[in-house]
Amino acid sequence: MTNPDTIFLDGRLLAIFCAAAEELHFGRAAARLFMSQPPFSQQIKRLEEVVGAALFVRTTRSVRLTPAGQLMYERARQIAGDTRTMLRAVRQAARGEAGSLVIGLTPSAACSPLTEALYHYRVAQPEIELDLREMNSNTMEGALRLRTIDVALMRPTLTDADIQATEVFQEPMVLAIRRDHPWAGRKRVTVEQVASIALIGYAQGVSPYFRQMLQSMFGHVGKRPRIVQESVVPTLLALVEAGVGAAIVPWTISQARGHSLLFLPLLDGSNSVAKIVVASLRSQPNPAVEGFVAAMRQAYRHSMPGSASKKA
Question: What global pTM score does this model have?
């Protein structure tokens, strides 16, 4: 004999039962499911045999639920609701509209208008849980391959073909000086002029992108910078505040630190525009990544290119 606890009730049989429980008329319930009444009644009888209890009291004039039938109807409605919720969640996840997304965020990107784009993404995709992790750009490539992050907002340091990167923000580089610096009254300076003052550079092991950018900027004007110390953002600004030297930094950093510092626009630097990209593995298994990348690209096209230049 079959153990009733191991019996599987298929969705069709439950749908037939629910129709009968709601209509309390087998003829109307059968028509609702595009069935004739005899096979409909046979399925109800089969269901009662399966569950081992009478579910309906039938007379020549009426049909009503038994206490067991009432309990089964309540549970069946709950199962139907849970099934709809499950299917909706599965379909959303398959379309990249649900689930989770782990995002690596370079410290300077955390100060940029990209944070506003992240906010709008959260509002548009409330079913996706975002986990933001601040990381240096030079560690994000490995994190993507290890799949400890799904996507990265980073400086463009990638070279391998298995990772795709799309530019989503650009900003000018500016000179950070103390407010009591001799150049405090200037409106702007040239890269050639900056070569004459003490400068804090970028550590190769942590900030290769900005280090290379400085080399290119000074190489363009045929000068060598007077690097007195190397550091990383945001510690680099603390060194400027301490009077160790000036520093060439991305514009977004000026929005986070301005109490004791001034930020002067730079002229004649051919490579003085810093970029941020959104990067992910080409063989990315998380379907939410594609939608996230598209959202960042759309935000960039609609609002970001002019935002930095207007404020700098």
Answer: 0.66
Q: Please, what is the Cα angle at 235 between 230 and 238, to 5 degrees? A: 105
Query: At 6, which amino acid appears?
Result: T
**What is the separation, in whole angstroms, between the first and last Cα of the chain?**
81
SS3 label, residue 279: strand
Query: 188 and 266 in contact (C-beta within 8 Å)?
Result: yes
Is 4-94 a CATH 1.10.150.240 domain? no
Residue type, 266: L
Closest CA to 94 of 295, 298, 291: 291
Query: Given pLDDT bands bounded at 50, 70 and 90, which one contains residue 93?
Result: low
CATH of domain 171-273: 3.40.190.10
Any idea where the domains of the chain sit in the sequence?
A: 4-94, 99-168+275-311, 171-273
Average model confidence (pLDDT) across the chain: 85
Please give the structure tokens belonging to residue 279: 């990067």
Helices (H), the chain: 11-23, 26-32, 37-51, 67-94, 114-124, 137-146, 191-194, 208-220, 235-241, 251-256, 288-302, 304-311
Dist. CA 191–CA 259, nearest whole Å: 24
CATH superfamily label, 99-168+275-311: Periplasmic binding protein-like II (3.40.190.10)
Cα–Cα distance between 114 and 125 in angstroms, integer? Answer: 16
**Maximum distance among all Cα pairs of the chain, rounded to whole angstroms:** 104
260's tokens: 């004791």
Rg of the Cα trace of the chain? 32
Band the pLDDT of 302: cuts 50, 70, 90. Answer: low
Tokens of 230: 């190397």
Residue 127 is predicted with a pLDDT of: 83
**52, pLDDT greater than 70:** yes
| H or E segment and range at residue 305 | helix 304-311
Indicate if 171-273 has the same CATH topology as 99-168+275-311: yes
